[in-house]
Amino acid sequence: MDVSAIDYYANHGVSFLHGARALSKIIFAGLVIASVVISNSFYLLLAVYFSLLTIVIWTRLPVLKIVTIAAYPAIFALIFAAASWNGSWVSAGVIVLKALCASLAMVILIVTTPYPDVFSSIEPVLPRIIREGLFLTYRSLFVLLELTDNLVKGLRVRGGLTHGRYIKNVVNFSSGIGLLLVRGLDLSEKFYGVLNVRGYSGRISGGGRHEKTGVNDFTAIVIGVLILGAALVIKKNGELSVYDGCMLALSLAALVLSTAYVVLPNTWGRAWKK
Amino acid sequence: MGESLEEIVKVRNLGFKYPDGTTLKFDGRDFTVGRGERVVMLGPNGSGKSTLLSLLLGLLKPSEGEIEVLGVDPSKEYEKIRERIGALLQNVDLQIIAPRVWDDVSFSPRNYGYKEEETARLVDDILKKLEIEHLKDKVPHYLSGGEKTKVGLAGALVIKPELLILDEPFEHIDPACRTELIKLLNRVNKENGTAIILSTHNMNTVPLIADTVYLIAEGGNIAGKGTPKEIFSQVETLSKCHIEPPILGELFSALKKQGVEMDISLTVDEAACTIANAMVLSKNKTGLG
Amino acid sequence: MGESLEEIVKVRNLGFKYPDGTTLKFDGRDFTVGRGERVVMLGPNGSGKSTLLSLLLGLLKPSEGEIEVLGVDPSKEYEKIRERIGALLQNVDLQIIAPRVWDDVSFSPRNYGYKEEETARLVDDILKKLEIEHLKDKVPHYLSGGEKTKVGLAGALVIKPELLILDEPFEHIDPACRTELIKLLNRVNKENGTAIILSTHNMNTVPLIADTVYLIAEGGNIAGKGTPKEIFSQVETLSKCHIEPPILGELFSALKKQGVEMDISLTVDEAACTIANAMVLSKNKTGLG
Amino acid sequence: MSHMHIPDGVLPVWIVTAGWVVTALLLAFCIKRVSSIELKRKVPLIGIISALMIVGMTLEIVPIAYHINLTVVAGIVLGPALAFISVFIVDLLISMFGHGGVTVVGLNTIIIGAEAVLGYYLFQLFKEVMGNKSMFWESSLAALLSLLLSTSIMLGVVYISQISPEKIESIGHLVSGTGSNTNGLRVLEDGINFSRFAKTVFILSPLGWILESVITGLVVKYVFRVRPDLILPERA
Ligand SMILES: Nc1ncnc2c1ncn2[C@@H]1O[C@H](COP(=O)(O)OP(=O)(O)OP(=O)(O)O)[C@@H](O)[C@H]1O
Ligand SMILES: Nc1ncnc2c1ncn2[C@@H]1O[C@H](COP(=O)(O)OP(=O)(O)OP(=O)(O)O)[C@@H](O)[C@H]1O
Ligand SMILES: [Mg+2]
Ligand SMILES: [Mg+2]
After folding, report:
1. A118: left (phi over 0), alpha (psi -120 to 50) or beta
2. How confident is the model at residue B138 (pLDDT cuts 50, 70, 90)?
3. A124 secondary structure, DSSP code
4. How many domains are there within chain A?
5. CA A194, CA B87: separation in Å to the nearest integer?
6. Is residue A199 part of a domain?
7. pLDDT, position A240
8. Residue, of C82 and D63, whose pLDDT is higher
9. Element containing residue A170 per DSSP (H, E)
10. I need a labelling partner for A7 at 20 to 30 A (CA). Which of A165, B51, B264, D41 fits?
């Protein structure tokens, strides 16, 4: 979970998804997750994953990094898969793919949408303390990340983290976390002062920016609808119908073509430019 | 200067005690700020500058003495005057709370219930004035130190306050940026008649930004008050407050020691004039004699 | 000075790229530090001073170029030399790790496996030298800014390093404390032959603490190298780096503009001498003429 | 991996929904309790502690899945109601970062929130009983126990999820049919072998528990030495 990288991509990317409104992308992610939840077809899930990969490639962000970030829940899914092992790789694959697809859909949302926009879109359904808490958490997160960076540097320079001396490292590291906590509480006092002085009465964000709905939003939602549609069709017709094969072939083709078009002219590493 | 002005801040015999027992007593002299006055507070680390500013902002409640800001007691009725005060606390990083620069600068007007168009107009105005329009949609953690200071300042200035309170605004920013900031503050002071109270450890900026200087000694004691020139010639009080005069002040005292007596000037241009004149004079004098 | 000394830091064509793509190239000139040399880095916000210091400390891995500190590549073998280097990074607050001052100052020797008596002796020594013995049992959290800086410095100096690296050590501390700190650093430099590399935005301290000054321009470019006097007379390079010369430098250029030409002096005493002499001279000249 | 973030799509819809409902109710209860206190002061506090938990999660001690959570520390510093709210915020945020499931934010909040709340009460209890000077043992034991309990809750959730109405039939079918695992636990056709799942979790988790509780102990000990007012009940 590389928060700084995620945030940086969201704020500095230029793809069609970056140009879409937050709400459209939330709907897109919702549709994908809905299809993941209802579907038990290995082939369909694989097709969904390929489609999502295609989208990641089209965002022109570092593909490997994003896929790695989104792969985290797969570790837990693997435990579930191992526990429900019935001799079939396919059903294990279904569990892992479900986790992978859902998480990649969320990551696509968050690496293409700056957080204020995401939060503003879900604001209406949240109680005030959580809404404000979300904004301040995110703001504090970056202040703390910088402090953490400083702290780790300090520990290393002063011999507090040494290769191979695990116990000492853990003790020193814990002191560091304690220090961070104490500093953090000071910071919260200061935030409180600032809120007070600036007349806080329950409005931290200025709401979403007034963006226009455009072709990008349409594209995002249509992709989502198509995926959900496919899931529904397959659910109705049972697994391993002709549809599965079609979906898989289609998504694979899209993936290969996109890779050829977007990535190969550059190189894997250079696809992302500042 | 400042004597005949309406006093918008009055502090008398103020005392404050932190929960851990640290006690500060701002006695010795009254602390007053006139309308449109530019006041600088100097004092050693831990003398209580930030504490005094927090008291003025109603963030702390005095344990004794009187305090009046824009006619009310800030610890009781800050809400009444908060729309007339802008503030920038120590550590700008924490000053910026909202997720985007525009949201942050518009924070106060939105919370004070200004109309949407009014807010937009005020924000655009101040962003233009501070030349940071291009930062409008940025997320604060991608701003540089100087930019953060400016955004914080924009948030404080957006409601055209009568009083601006700044705690060490010049730390961590490079000299070029500092000079720009000083110009900006002076412009705001002149155009809107905004009074400014600020604390700093940078003595050389003092002559550029202060009408009146207050010296705070250890424990909060208000040990001196005067124009920069007056203050920086009170060598004893200064050393009592662990303060060194700005370089030019030191230069003139060093010259005095060497037998060259001149009027103290604290800005470079003035000082150059003084010295050049003195040379010409001494030439002439010898020439005459 | 410094040319004939053994070079303990050598940096050539160094480049570094942050994960987000920000690229710094420390080119234009080699960056070298001799044994016992006092080096100051100046540059605008975001020019890469802190990055360069982190590279020297092996905290970051260069993406290109060569870097050698005390004979080894710090990004690979920092553990070999770390007992010979002391460092204090930007933001002292987070460098004071242990819950008591004594624990903190003894942090490095304890982690490097020094014997107990040895550690105790070293710590007592440095506390005495910095005159902060009375803080021994205090919780660092409650110390003043200046005291914190001193404790941090004690923690860096306790192992008698050959090289001391300080990132903006003078921020947030009052002038008296700053002067004291400068004295202290100069004493350590003289007594132990410790080389010092520091970055600062406070131009007026530079002449007091620097043998050599490096100017870093935007993007890491090493735009200038020289003694403080040399550097501060290169007006063009300075303005390229958004740096203003120290007040005395400005004074002498202002005097020059007014037709009074003198050698630039950057410390108060020197400047006073120069000016006093010039006056006497001009008197004499006119007297003679 | 001191606790598990349940991923999306592995549990049946009904229990996921139930998780949201229960979390919503608990949140409503907590918010009600908090809003009587001054909200303006609490929001930045929640923000900072939630951020600290997320920072903890980004610092992987043993690579891949062992990171610290600081939930018990959050519980001790914030008290139960605020800690629960804070855990919800953390879960919501990390689900966006692809770190845990989205649909299961409700369930995960219950599990991890329980950890924080239990941590708080256990710590208070041990503090009374043990009266240790350094707070190390109190807090690390509290952490260890609450991790054990929250893992049990998680296992409970997974177990309950097996008893879905639609599965009841198949259970009957199984019992009469091909028979079950040797240890007598139910093996569901499409579901999870619960005993195998529990075993895996109990094999993988203890390393995480121990790390987390040692670090919790050390952190609390540190905070207690530096700012005892944050740990002791006198705090405002
Ligand atoms: N929250 C606090 N609890 C206890 N003591 C405090 C607190 N904040 C400040 N103090 C103490 O009050 C005194 C005044 O502190 P203050 O921050 O006002 O000084 P200052 O003049 O702003 O110093 P600096 O120049 O370092 O910013 C100091 O002795 C300080 O240690
Ligand atoms: N962790 C980071 N990730 C990305 N970019 C960074 C990071 N740290 C620094 N930078 C960027 O690298 C450049 C150099 O930063 P650095 O902190 O070295 O500057 P500096 O000279 O120390 O500035 P200052 O005088 O403000 O301390 C800046 O543009 C900065 O934004
Ligand atoms: Mg202060
Ligand atoms: Mg720096």
Report:
1. alpha
2. confident
3. G
4. 2
5. 8
6. yes
7. 64
8. C82
9. helix A166-197
10. D41
Are A108 and A131 part of one and the same domain? no
The pLDDT of C257-269, averaged and rounded, is: 86
Q: Do the domain assignments include residue A119?
A: no
Minimal-distance CA residue to ligand 2 atom 24: C45
Residue B140 has pLDDT above 90, yes or no: no
The residues of chain D scoring below 50 in pLDDT are 1, 165-189, 234-236
C237 CB burial (10 A radius; 0-12, 13-18, 19+): middle
* In the predicted structure, residue A209 carries a pLDDT above the cut 80: no
**C120-130 per-position pLDDT tens digit:** 999 999 999 88
Asked whether residue A66 is assigned to any structural domain, the reply reads yes
Q: How far apart are CA B59 and CA A260, in angstroms?
A: 61
Distance (Å, whole) CA A81 – CA A143? 38
Domain membership of residue A81 (yes or no) is yes
Residues 6+ apart with CB under 8 A from C266: C206, C207, C228, C229, C232, C246, C248, C249
H or E element in which residue B187 lies: helix B175-192
Task: Indicate yes or no: CB of C45 within 8 angstroms of CB of B243.
Answer: no
The CATH architecture that domain D13-164+206-230 belongs to is Orthogonal Bundle (1.10)
Q: Which of C9, C15, C99, C103 is nearest to C57 (CA)?
A: C9
Q: Are residues A141 and A267 in the same domain?
A: no
What is the percent of chain B where pLDDT is above 90?
57
Average pLDDT over residues C98-108: 93
The CA distances from residue A34 to A105, B35, B160, in Å, are 11, 63, 50
Is the domain of A42 the same as that of A103?
Answer: yes
**Residues of chain C with C-beta less than 8 angstroms from the C-beta of B271:** 251, 254
Of B173, B201, B284, the CB nearest to C175: B201
Largest CA distance in chain D: 64
Question: What sign does the dihedral D127-D131-D135-D139 (CA atoms) show?
Answer: negative
In this prediction, residue B265 has a pLDDT band, given cuts at 50, 70 and 90, of confident
Asked if residue A267 has pLDDT above 60, the reply is no
pLDDT for res C92: 85
For residue C154, the SS3 value is helix
- On the CB side of B258, CA atoms within 13 Å amount to 21
Structure tokens that stand for C185 in this block: 């650093």
Q: Do B85 and A197 touch (CB under 8 A)?
A: yes
Distance D4 CA to ligand 1 centre (A): 44
Give the pLDDT score at B93: 81
Select from A41, A43, A39, A36 the least CA-distant residue to A245. Answer: A43
Beta strands in A73-169 (DSSP E): none
Confidence tier at A273 by pLDDT (50, 70, 90):
very low
* Model confidence at C284: pLDDT above 80: no
Nearest 5°: phi and psi at D94?
Answer: -70, -25
Within this chain, do residues A105 and A236 fall inside the same structural domain, yes or no?
A: yes
For residues B137-175, one letter each, b for 16 or more C-beta atoms within 10 angstroms of the residue's C-beta and e for the rest, the string is ebbbbebebbbbbbbbbbbbbbbbbbbbbbbbbbbbbbb
How many C-beta neighbours within 10 Å does residue B288 have?
A: 7
Instruction: Provide residues with CB under 6 Å of ligand 2.
Output: B 145; C 18, 20, 22, 24, 43, 45-51
Range of the structural domain that residue A62 is part of: 1-114+213-274
Q: Which of B171, B255, B282 lies closest to C171 in CB terms?
A: B171
What's the half-sphere exposure (Cβ side, CA atoms, 13 Å) at D203? 8
